[in-house]
From TrEMBL:
<keyword id="KW-0408">Iron</keyword>
<feature type="binding site">
    <location>
        <begin position="261"/>
        <end position="263"/>
    </location>
    <ligand>
        <name>GTP</name>
    </ligand>
</feature>
<dbReference type="InterPro" id="IPR040064">
    <property type="entry name" value="MoaA-like"/>
</dbReference>
<comment type="pathway">
    <text>Cofactor biosynthesis; molybdopterin biosynthesis.</text>
</comment>
<feature type="binding site">
    <location>
        <position position="259"/>
    </location>
    <ligand>
        <name>[4Fe-4S] cluster 2</name>
    </ligand>
</feature>
<keyword id="KW-0547">Nucleotide-binding</keyword>
<feature type="binding site">
    <location>
        <position position="120"/>
    </location>
    <ligand>
        <name>S-adenosyl-L-methionine</name>
    </ligand>
</feature>
<feature type="binding site">
    <location>
        <position position="256"/>
    </location>
    <ligand>
        <name>[4Fe-4S] cluster 2</name>
    </ligand>
</feature>
<dbReference type="InterPro" id="IPR013483">
    <property type="entry name" value="MoaA"/>
</dbReference>
<keyword id="KW-0411">Iron-sulfur</keyword>
<comment type="similarity">
    <text>Belongs to the radical SAM superfamily. MoaA family.</text>
</comment>
<feature type="binding site">
    <location>
        <position position="21"/>
    </location>
    <ligand>
        <name>[4Fe-4S] cluster 1</name>
    </ligand>
</feature>
<feature type="binding site">
    <location>
        <position position="65"/>
    </location>
    <ligand>
        <name>GTP</name>
    </ligand>
</feature>
<comment type="function">
    <text>Catalyzes the cyclization of GTP to (8S)-3',8-cyclo-7,8-dihydroguanosine 5'-triphosphate.</text>
</comment>
<dbReference type="InterPro" id="IPR050105">
    <property type="entry name" value="MoCo_biosynth_MoaA/MoaC"/>
</dbReference>
<dbReference type="InterPro" id="IPR006638">
    <property type="entry name" value="Elp3/MiaA/NifB-like_rSAM"/>
</dbReference>
<dbReference type="InterPro" id="IPR058240">
    <property type="entry name" value="rSAM_sf"/>
</dbReference>
């Protein structure tokens, strides 16, 4: 088991398949992009599947989420998903994506064994999308969402980050868009994980503010709080349900005490927290010929050292040197 010194057990593995992305969301990276990892440093598909297999077969991982960067940019994605879904005990397999290209791939991914998707969509306005993501791809994302739903990758979840003065007036329209289509919307507080280090607490639209924006127009009632378990989103029934909306207050309502996540970066580093400042290099060991037992031991040691909390509110907090796109969101 992947147990830390506070007794939390990691069962949810987030795997970044690439640090590259075809959008440039302002809260994530600068318009000119970043220096991407050289291909030789990326784990190969076989290396990814080997590490995921160790996680599932030896270490109690029950959920595998592929992310990035943008995971749809990884050519072997369908193959990686198929090999993950074939593991026993079968893990839940999901994908976090910006949706660009999903219109073409959703069917193949569902057939390969993908269970669910989270698609990021912060605005319903094409001009705002261009301003926010520096690319004119709004229609592609909407087409990706529709294809995911048709392929049965349900519940289709939508992730939205609100930014003050840019899209914070869209909280209710985004909710209505999702309710009309049967998607489950989750708002995520903006976190200090941008490559530019431009995050400013005062600019962040907080969970309380998001709830107030929604409650001005819909009735919200807390749902499943006792069942929340390790889920990051606080969920609310909308107008009596059954439709729901989630709010992930990563900064103002941290859920570290129930965290069950562990991350594998595209270059083979284990991170026990999004905000960790240390990583544990499985790729070097793997490429030096380590056996499964040794890799598992290294992974166990990496999780054991997980801190109690991300410490964003601590005056000594330091943003991790790697941005979200390189860690895997
Ligand atoms: N490219 C994929 C996507 O867009 O979903 C996967 C990677 S992206 C880093 C994963 C999620 O992280 C997205 O929903 C994105 O909005 C969110 N994200 C990125 N930077 C963030 C930040 N600084 N604060 C909060 N969420 C962020």
């Amino acid at each position: 088991m992947l147990k830390d010194s506070f007794g939390r057990v990691a069962t949810d593995l987030r795997v970044s398949l690439t640090d590259k992305c075809n959008l440039r969301c302002t809260y994530c990276m600068p318009p000119e992009g970043l220096d991407w990892l050289p291909n030789a440093q990326l784990l190969t598909a076989d290396e990814i599947v080997r590490l995921v297999t160790i996680g599932v077969e030896r270490l109690g991982i029950t959920e595998v989420r592929y992310t990035g960067g943008e995971p749809l940019l990884r050519r072997e994605l369908v193959d990686i998903v198929a090999r993950t879904a074939a593991l026993r005990p079968k893990p839940q397999v999901s994908l976090t994506t910006n949706g660009i290209g999903l219109a073409k791939l959703a069917g193949a991914l569902a057939e390969a064994g993908l269970d669910r998707v989270n698609v990021s969509l912060d605005t319903l306005d094409r001009e705002t999308f261009k301003r926010l993501a520096h690319r004119d791809r709004f229609e592609d994302v909407v087409a990706g969402l529709e294809a995911a739903d048709r392929a049965g990758l349900r519940p289709v979840k939508v992730n939205a980050v609100l930014m003050r003065g840019i899209n914070d007036h869209e909280a209710v329209p985004l909710l209505r868009f999702c309710l009309e289509r049967g998607y489950e919307l989750r708002f995520i507080e903006q976190m200090p994980l941008d490559a530019q280090h431009g995050w400013n607490r005062a600019d962040m639209v907080t969970a309380d503010e998001i709830l107030a924006l929604l409650q001005a127009e819909v009735d919200l009632c807390a749902d499943d709080l006792e069942e929340r378990g390790s889920a990051p989103a606080e969920r609310f029934l909308v107008d009596g349900g059954p439709a729901r909306v989630g709010v992930i207050g990563s900064v103002t309502r941290p859920f570290c005490g129930a965290c069950d996540r562990v991350r594998l970066t595209a270059d083979g580093q284990i991170r026990n927290c999004l905000f960790a400042r240390e990583e544990s290099d499985l790729k070097a060991a793997l490429r030096a010929g380590a056996g499964d037992e040794e890799l598992a031991e290294r992974w166990i040691a990496a999780v054991r050292g997980k801190r109690a909390g991300h410490g964003i509110d601590d005056p000594s907090f330091l943003q991790p040197s790697r941005p979200m796109s390189a860690i895997g969101g």
